[in-house]
Amino acid sequence: MRIGFIGLGRMGANMVRRLIRDGHEIVVYNRTPEKTREIAGEGAIASFSIEEMVGMLEGPRAVWIMVPAGDATEAQIAELMEHLQPGDTIIDGGNTNFHDDQRRHPDLKGKGINYVDAGVSGGIWGLQVGYCLMVGGDKDAVDPLLPIFTTLAPPNGYMHVGGPGAGHYVKMVHNGIEYGLMQAYAEGFEIMHASDYDLDLGAISELWMQGSVVRSWLLELAGRAFRANGRDLEHIKGWVADSGEGRWTVQESIDRDVPAPVITLSLQMRFRSRQPDSYGAKVLAALRNEFGGHEVKTE
Length: 299
Prior knowledge:
By secondary structure, the chain is of the alpha/beta class. Helix content is 51%, strand content 13%. It has helices at 10-21, 33-40, 50-55, 71-80, 98-109, 126-129, 139-142, 146-152, 166-194, 201-208, 217-229, 245-255, 261-273, 279-292; strands at 2-6, 25-29, 45-46, 62-65, 89-92, 114-121, 132-136, 158-162. The chain has an 8-stranded mixed beta sheet with strand order 3-2-1-4-5-6-7-8, with helices on both faces. Helix 4 links the parallel strand 4 and strand 5. Helix 9 (166-194) crosses helix 12, helix 9 packs across helix 13 and helix 10 runs antiparallel to helix 11. The longest helix is centred in the middle third of the chain and has 29 residues, at 166-194.
């Protein structure tokens, strides 16, 4: 199958590589031409503008967008709309807010353009093991893309989960759960790190991978991190970003009156990680000193 592909970051480039290896013809475009030339050297078809990319596709065309959610994706869709024709399809594989999908779908459908949202999980390991794909959109728009989805996904790793926005909705909740899992591992390993025992945390990670009820791919990655960086992770700063999906999951839980304390607190802990010295903690220390005379540490 021949499709266009916009966005050759770490994830996008590896997705193109996986598609090429399975015999698909991928016309690629990236804002920086160096990336385009690099992946073209591995078998992709290079283009250096949206117009050129669309011109190298036969109708009905399909174009996959793999750029940051928000303004970047909006800009690519707007430019694509200057060149696409009725019957063509846009696939948004970024971490888009499902509300944006619900807004785009009827707008594009009114112009004859199909819109498919694809939640993609797999990170930098997807090239090797495949990407879990959570796809939303109209069935008649999704079905023709099945060869692309089955190439990208491992066995049983693709699902058409529902109508417009459903793919990104499921991926949003997936990432919210991921926040909670990661926070639980982080707290557990911190307790062991602080103990009086000289524990080999990397070895314990690997031990827990052998039949334990807490085994997971994230735990396997924890073991890799300890082996690469040492028990104290001394070369890693404890500053943790969030890419949006955790916030959206928490907001959805509020909107739906669904309690989600673990995911919510995991998100809050990411905010805390960005404070070199918490002002709130200073207030707590000052209050303890005021009412109980407890010691205050000064800078």
